[in-house]
Predict the structure of Alpha-galacturonidase.
Amino acid sequence: MANSSHHHTVNIAYIGGGSLNWATKLMADLAQDRLLAAHVRLYDLDHDAAVRNARIGARFAEVSKGYPARYDAVRSIEEALTGADVVVVSILPGEFEDMAHDIDIPAAYGIRQAVGDTVGPGGFVRALRSIPMMVEIAEAIRKTAPKAWVCNLTNPMSALTGAMYRAFPEIRLWGECHEVTKLRHQVAWIGNRELGSERFSHRDVTVNVLGINHFTFVGSINIGSRDMMPAYRAFAQHHGNSGWAPRAQKPGDEHDHYFMDRSRVKFDLLGRFGIPAAAGDRHLAEFLPQAQYLDEHEAWDFTLTPVSYRERDRAQKRARADALAAGEGVVHAERSDEALVDQIKALLGFGDFVSNVNLPNRGQLGGVHIGAIVETNALFSASGVTPLVAGRLPDELLTIVADHADRQTAMVGAVMENRWNDLFDLFHSDPLVAPLAEAEARRMFGEMIAATSHHLPRDLVRTAA
C-alpha cells in the first residue's frame, strides 16, 4: 500500500460491486475519511449494477472530506483483484426466489424461520449453493492477490468464511458482521440516559464477544473504565417483559415492522444463561428449538421476515440507486456504523483497532474445536488481524454453540470433498429440523434441493432426489 505525504493509497477490489446496501455504506465512509485515497474496482456478475455504483461512487467522491476515492466498474474478477490491497466480498448467493424456497418449503412442514440465511433449513441450503461461489472467489484471490486482506460480508458468514479458508488456507480473511453493534448502541443509550446528555456513541462501548456469527454473547461491557454490566443487567430486567427500542415504531413502516429489534429474546437469554446476548432477536431465535421462541414469535415481539418484503425493499433500493446514479438526490459524507474503514486504516498502521470478527478458532474461544469459525474480538494492526482470547461460554450455552459450529464445519467439509451422502444427517441434526421424522425431513430436504438445483452440483441434486 503506497504512501505519500498527503494521502495513503489503498486499492480495494469489491466482489459483488453492484451491491445495493454495503457498497454505498463503504462509499460514505471513504468520503468522510481524511487519510485514505482509495481506488475501488467494482466487479459484479451484473455489470450494469457495478457501472451504476461507480457513478454513485463518483458522487460521493465529489463531497469527500479528504482525498476523493476513485470507482471503476470492471468486467472480470481478475481485473478487480490485480494489485488489490483489500478485497471486499458481498454477494447474494442465488436470487430472492431461491431464498423464498428456503423459507416457504420448511414452512409447509411447520418450520418457522425469522431470517433463514444462517442456520436452520434455510441457512443450510443457502450455504450449499454459496460455498462453490465462495471457493471460486477464494481461488481467484489465491491466484491474483494472495497477500490482500479479505473481508467477507456474505451470509451464512460462518460456513462461507470457513469454505474460503478451506479453499485457500493462507488467505488473510475475516468475516464481518454488525449485529453486536446493536447491543453497543443499547449500552451507549443507557450511559447517556444516566448522564442526561448525548455523550456516548456505540464506539465508546467495548465488549468481550464470545460465540458464532448471529449467536453472539458478551462477557464484559465497559464505557471507558466503567463496568457497565450491572447497569445492563438492570436494564434488561426492567425491560424484559415490555421490550425496548430506541424510538417508537413508525406507523405503517414495513422496515420498522420487520426489523425493529425489541430485544425480548436477548433479555430472556441473559436470564437463562447469565450472559448478555448480543445479536438481534430474529437471528438468535433460529439457533434454538422452535418451541422456545419461533412458535410464539409474536408474543416475543419479533417477526418472521417474508421474502416478498425483501423483494419490495430491493425494488425501492434499486430505484433510489438509479436516481443517485442519474444525479438526483443528495449524497452525504457521513460515517456509517460499519467498521471496515477503521479496520483498513489499522492494517495500514494508523493506530490499533479492536472489533468483533469471524475467524478460525485458534484457541480464542474455549470449548469449541480448533479451526471452527468463531466470532470474538480481534486486534487490527500493522501486524495483521490477531484474534483475542475471549474465554469460555457458560457450559449449557457452550454445548449449543459447539453443536452449531461442528455442524457448519462438517457441512463445509462434506461439500468441498463431494461427500453428498453426509449432508442429510447434518441437515436433520439442526435444532429446527430435528423434531421432524426422518422420512419427512428427507422429503423436505429433497424438495429444497430440487428448488435451488440450478445453483448446485449435479451429484448433490441426484443424491438428494
